Amino acid sequence: MKYQLPQDSKMLSKKEFTFGVATAAFQIEGANTKDGRCESIWDRFCATPGKVLNGDDGTQACDHYHRWQEDLDLIAALGVDAYRFSIAWPRIEPTSGSWNKKGFDFYERLVDGMLDRGIKPYCTLYHWDLPQYLEDNGGWLNRDTAHRFAEYADRVTQVLGDRVASYATFNEPWCAAYLGYRTGMHAPGHQTVAGGFKAIHHILLASGLALPAMRENAPGASHGIVLNFSPGYAYDANDAEDVNAAKEHDEEHTHGYIKPILEGQYPEGLYQRYESEMIQPEEGDMEIISRPIDYLGINFYNRTILKANKPDDFNVFPEDAEFTDFDWEIYPDSLRYLLNDLNNTYPNLPPIIITENGAACADSIDESGKCHDDQRCRYYNSHLNAVDGAIKDGVNVRGYFGWSLLDNFEWAAGYSKRFGMTYVDYETQERTPKSSYYLYQELMKERD
Ligand code: IFM
């Protein structure tokens, strides 16, 4: 098979559209005690029995800290325009207020290595690995962490400046706040509703606080944030209560994040439903949170089906539904639907980059040394076409990044789930490009 986009697709124009692949520091780097890096909340979480499947941790991961040149060569050979990576705050500021040259050196080498290979660096400043000493001080429940993030973002952008084409303040505040502080499924593992809302607010505040210095330090770069969405669908579209359940899901998990950024307000319905748990912003907070962004990164994997009066994890799907190895339903239409919905709801929606999209598959290497990840290939093809459809509907989508370049540490699922276009043998650290990598490479060649 091949990834087939219509001939008239804007995605096939290099001028109009950026293609890339994405990773994140904690998921690939390893070397988590090297060159002065301090403990992060994810190191602590992994070391806590029962939190991560099989007790897996980020000690070695893909050993990217030592193999970054080989990994950049893989990206260059893929033929994409850009590489989205994240910076580990624990390497940069290993003790409060001290800035670690060796940490900066690593990311400078990495960024320069991309530029040498003609790859545009897309840098995420926070992909969940908060220094543990900040968590010991309250983490994202402490408003001061927002100011600490702004200082860290200032330092990093002073050093990397315009060498980076695009900065994202945060990756998926929903995961950091909701999974980290409300359900406890992710580090640091807290479980209160009010804590979840407080963490969201402080993360969004941190993002807004950081933007002015980022713009000053890197005036030629674009600056934005990456949000993840899983649009709600009513189990029974003819049942008013199911329809309302889907609406409430979107209000909380989609608009609860994008509306404060684009409109300076949390959805009113959240104050009604969570009267005592919802945060009351301080004066001026919402102006800071809604400082303009140049682009919005969207991470999309699947939709959520809602039935009234059932818990959020009501998982009943159509009989013919197909699932990935994470049991996530494959439903590409919901990506097109989501993009249109956001475009219709927010008149000031900035240009969109799909900063993550991909599938976990139970991959293995066959006798001939190859990895045929057919389901992932079909997943990419259908989602690329969903993006193309949304562009034709009038949505301003300017880029697409596959998640992920490599198999890597999949958070609470440890190494049990593989999202890579490249298979990683964790014993030998050998990298084997999968069929999905080669199809992406072919698609890159078809562009003008
Ligand atoms: O692996 C994660 C990534 O860190 C954030 N977005 C979703 C991916 C798949 O779960």
What key phrases describe this protein's structure?
448 residues; alpha/beta; 8-stranded parallel barrel; two-stranded parallel ribbon; 15 helices; 40% helix; binds 5-hydroxymethyl-3,4-dihydroxypiperidine
Give a description of the structure.
The protein has 448 residues and is an alpha/beta fold. The chain has a single domain (10-445), classed as Alpha-Beta Barrel (TIM Barrel). The protein contains 15 helices and 12 strands. The strands form 3 sheets. The protein has an 8-stranded parallel β-barrel, surrounded by 5 helices. The two termini are 21 Å apart. The structure holds 5-hydroxymethyl-3,4-dihydroxypiperidine. 5-hydroxymethyl-3,4-dihydroxypiperidine binds next to loops.
Summarize, please.
The chain is of the alpha/beta class. It is about 40% helix and about 15% strand. The protein has one domain: Glycosidases (TIM Barrel), CATH 3.20.20.80.
User: What is the molecular shape?
Assistant: globular
Question: Structural class given helices, strands, pairing?
Answer: alpha/beta
CATH topology: TIM Barrel
Give the CATH architecture.
Alpha-Beta Barrel
What is the makeup of the main sheet? Answer: 8 strands, parallel, barrel
CATH-assigned homologous superfamily: Glycosidases
